[in-house]
Specification:
The chain has 363 residues and is α+β, with helices and mostly antiparallel strands. The protein folds into two domains: 177 residues; 85 residues, Alpha-Beta Plaits. The protein is 62% helix and 14% strand. Helix 1 runs antiparallel to helix 3, helix 5 packs antiparallel against helix 6 and helix 12 packs across helix 13. The protein is elongated and about 110 Å long. 17% of the residues are buried. About 3% of the residues have low confidence.
């Protein structure tokens, strides 16, 4: 009876202390969030409540479970202690990741609010994402190592493992050369400002927007909602187009093939009217000129501008559709045509054909 009472006392006391401490921490974070609404840090830290409760409960049980005078617990004292230690280490790693994530997200939110340059915001967002992945990976590795060290067998192997760490590291480096190359390429992309989340890029002839950047791969969402997953080493070893670097405003061209009699000057005026009614044209520049000619057609090039790649695509499509429709309706003679005529028969060939026909009649 006394042992059962001790068990209930330890468990109940641990639960009560855990609930009280976590409740006080939550109230403190709420008060700090109300006093400092300019930063979301304190509200983000409230997401750590569950991890904090597990850490507190495991720590309290780890320190007080030996006081329980209960035979089943005494027979498995080492196993219970190891389970509590593993739980404490895992929950502690989870809590650290949550705290680091809250601090990083809060810093990014404050920076994004105070910065008007979208390119810098995308750059910081890319760096923050990779930093959090690195922190999570490091914390996970340290936590797993700490869990393994709780087992005596792994602890006794520590000396031999350290002695052979150099050889293992060399072998692992050679075997994982590609993976390590992508890893360092990920850091180069994040802090070298080569490509950022939200940038419009053209890779392998595909136009899309960078949707995700990790330490090993980069995901590009194309205009037709496909996802291209490419190793980050691709962007450090091969040339690619980044339409968002150095400013997102762009200049585009529209080519229209016409006949030699096309009214170029009227097309130029019509282009200006079309652009004035196009909401995606930013008004920076426009032009129309004949850039090429063939025996049957001429090539008319229209130049338009827009504030970003998406608006540029819309503007180009609108201009192309409007010019072709205007030519077909107002000046159909300006559209290219294919002229056909009966084939001319040579004189010698015609005489031979007549002689062959006369011979046939005689038969």
């Amino acid at each position: 009876m006394n042992s059962v009472l001790r068990l209930l006392t330890v468990l109940g006391g641990s639960v009560l202390l855990t609930f009280t401490a976590s409740r006080l921490a939550d109230l403190l974070l709420r008060r700090m969030d109300a006093r400092h609404p300019e930063t979301p840090l304190w509200n983000l830290l409230r997401r750590c409540r569950l991890a904090l409760r597990i850490v507190l409960f495991a720590a309290l049980l780890r320190g007080a479970y030996r006081q329980i005078d209960w035979r089943p617990l005494e027979e498995h004292e080492a196993a219970v202690g190891r389970v509590l230690s593993l739980t404490l280490i895992g929950a502690g790693a989870w809590l650290i990741v949550h705290i680091a994530s809250a601090a990083v997200e809060s810093s990014y939110a404050r920076y994004a609010t105070g910065t008007r340059d979208p390119a810098r915001v995308r750059r910081v967002r890319t760096q923050v994402t990779l930093i959090m992945r690195v922190v999570t990976a490091v914390v996970a590795v340290v936590a797993v190592a700490a869990m393994l060290l709780t087992f005596p067998a792994f602890r006794t192997l520590g000396t031999s493992v350290l002695a052979s760490a150099g050889i293992i590291g060399i072998v692992a480096g050679v075997a994982a050369q590609s993976t390590l190359g992508n890893l360092f390429a990920g850091f180069q992309i994040a802090f070298g400002d080569m490509v950022r989340i939200g940038d419009t890029v053209v890779v392998d002839g595909e136009w899309g927007v960078v949707e995700e950047v990790t330490l090993t791969f980069l995901a590009v969402r194309t205009w037709d909602e496909r996802r291209l997953t490419m190793p980050v080493s691709y962007f450090t070893a091969r040339p690619f187009e980044n339409w968002s670097r150095g400013g997102i405003q762009m200049t585009g061209t529209v080519f229209v093939h016409c006949s030699h009699s096309a009214p170029v000057e009227l097309m130029r005026k019509q282009l200006h009217e079309v652009l004035l009614g196009c909401p995606t044209w930013d008004g920076r520049a426009w032009d129309l000129a004949v850039t090429d000619t063939t025996p049957s057609t001429i090539t008319v090039r229209a130049i338009v501008t827009a504030k970003d790649p998406d608006d540029l695509w819309t503007t180009r499509c609108a201009v192309r559709e409007a010019l072709v429709g205007w030519l077909a309706e107002e000046h159909p003679y300006g559209l290219p045509r294919i002229n056909t005529a009966p084939a001319a028969v040579p004189v010698d060939a015609g005489t031979a054909m007549d002689a062959h026909a006369d011979a046939g009649h005689r038969r």
